[in-house]
Amino acid sequence: MPIDATSPRRALAAAFFGAAALAFASCSTPKPRGAVLIRTPAGAEQGVTTPLGTVFLARTAQQGPCDVTIFYGDGPSIEPGRIASIQDGLARVDLELKAPWTELSMYYPTPEDDLVVGIATERDVEFFSTRAASGVNGTAVDLPSGFPTAPSSVGAGVFRREDQRYRLVGLVTGVARFVDASGRRREVLTYLGPKELLPLWIESRDRARAFDPPRRDDIQR
Fold it and tell me: Does the N terminus or the C terminus of the chain have fewer Cβ atoms within 10 A?
């Protein structure tokens, strides 16, 4: 028998079960973790925290102090960090506290994969669905609708769902605009893929001292 929405008790029951269904749906579709906003004296850019450290493209600074906006689950928190260069155009940030992180993927996405690009702001993380760009030389994804193309979006993480969780595929390097073979104007996001992020693995392996920063006591991860 359908629920009669005109009955206060039944209306309450409908609202309860509707909210429960919404909560279940949100639990069944987890979002990528690890997106952070990095601020240096020269500006802001994106980064992603991984088990090997917080990695970013170091467009605004290759070394020195920075502020990192991290999302622990109870809202944004600005934490101090220090930049250490890995190689030209790639660096990590050492944090005083352990932040939520995402694993690194070793595989390039295929056109059939559902991908997500994460943009960290001062308040939250915005996610944009996309796919690997077809007919493009190099690593690129289709420019998602509504994606902010400001300089502070450089370094945004490209994530793919693998083994029931999201892993980092690459870091956005910029926007490419061109006319394809059919005469259609196209816009894509280029990114550094797993091969280009390999120096992070090597640098992490060769670090003389393993540093395990403390966790926030009030956050379970």
Answer: N
Query: How far is CA 14 from each of CA 6, 56, 82, rounded to the nearest angstrom?
Result: 11, 46, 51
| Cα R_g (the chain), whole angstroms | 20
Kindly indicate the confidence band of residue 126, based on its pLDDT and cuts at 50, 70 and 90.
very high
d(CA 37, CA 95): 13
Cα angle at 13 between 7 and 19, to 5 degrees?
A: 135
Comparing CA positions, the residue from 36, 62, 56, 40 lying closest to residue 173 is 56
Antiparallel, parallel or unpaired: β 103-104 and 165-179:
parallel
Q: Determine if the pTM surpasses 0.90.
A: no
- In sequence order, what DSSP letters do the residues of 102-118 get, joined into one string? -EEP-S---TTS-EEEE
